Amino acid sequence: MTTGSTGPDVTAVQHLLTHHGRATAADGQYGSGTRAAVTTFQTDRGLTADGVAGPRTIGALVVTLREGDRGPAVQALQTLLNARGAALDADGDLGPATAGAVRAFQSARGLAVDGVAGPQTWAALFGTGGTQPPGSTYDSLSEAQKANARTIIAVGKGAGVPERGWVVALATAMQESTLVNVDYGDRDSLGLFQQRPSQGWGTQAQVQDPVLASKAFYGVAAHTPNPGLLDIAGWQSMPVTQAAQAVQRSAYPDAYARWETLAREIVAREGGVAPVG
């Protein structure tokens, strides 16, 4: 999408820009204001700042949404679902009707039917690559995603965590935040691992610090008593998704498995980074 584009996909992008703090009129017209907001967003996320809402930019804009979420990102979701055949009020409230529409769309597209609008569901809604959303293969990762991945690996190295632990951490961060250090999430969840200050993971600043958040996930952080990966007995013999779930205690414990292949590729490509203590 670029200047002159119109329609519900543009409206959805505009709602997502507003969600990310760049208030944009949701008029379905890709004018100069939308282009400027996209350019600013791209600059902030380490993307090519060309003002074009292509696959990588859309991959960075989308956020995982679940029943109970509210706000402009939900309006973006509802707008796209309506354009694909649903009949929802675009009220920004992800209630049972919207969750049901997500499940129906997922079923029709051969996706995992969980009612959660994650990267794959967004990619299918936007039509940006079927079940392989932008940012879900190494070559499609943004520079910001790669930088965060290198930090996770470097912290693991510095803590003496074996390579398998890096894979678990990367798969977790990919599922939780798509390797983007986000300043939003479910309830008070924040950062790469969507750690919650209210659950003892640290202050808002600490859980949004990639180094400290990585240390917390591995279980080597001084700022939180919460158990991390190294505190989990037998984690090295567990499947990646089980090891990740032991730390995260997610409502969707099987979701981490889908990112194991990408996590291993990232380790193969970025594993030479210097350790961070």
What this model shows, in words?
The chain is mainly alpha-helical and 277 residues long. Helices cover 47% and strands 0% of the residues. It has helices at residues 8-19, 32-44, 55-61, 72-83, 96-108, 119-126, 143-158, 163-177, 204-207, 210-218, 240-248, 260-270. The model is unreliable at 129-134 (pLDDT under 50).
Give a summary of the structure in a few sentences.
The chain has 277 residues and is mainly α. The chain has helices at 8-19, 32-44, 55-61, 72-83, 96-108, 119-126, 143-158, 163-177, 204-207, 210-218, 240-248, 260-270.
Return the average pLDDT rounded to an integer.
Answer: 91
What structural class do helix, strand and pairing data support?
Answer: mainly alpha
| Rg over CA atoms | 18 Å
* Percent of residues in beta strands: under 5%
Low-confidence stretches: 129-134
Distance between the termini: 42 Å
Instruction: Summarize the helix and strand pattern as letters.
Output: HHHHHHHHHHHH
Main β-sheet description:
none
Percent helix range:
40-55%
How are the SSEs ordered, and which strands pair?
Elements: H1 8-19, H2 32-44, H3 55-61, H4 72-83, H5 96-108, H6 119-126, H7 143-158, H8 163-177, H9 204-207, H10 210-218, H11 240-248, H12 260-270
Helix pairs in contact: 1-4, 7-8, 7-10, 8-11, 8-12
Provide tags for this entry.
277 residues; globular; 12 helices; mainly alpha
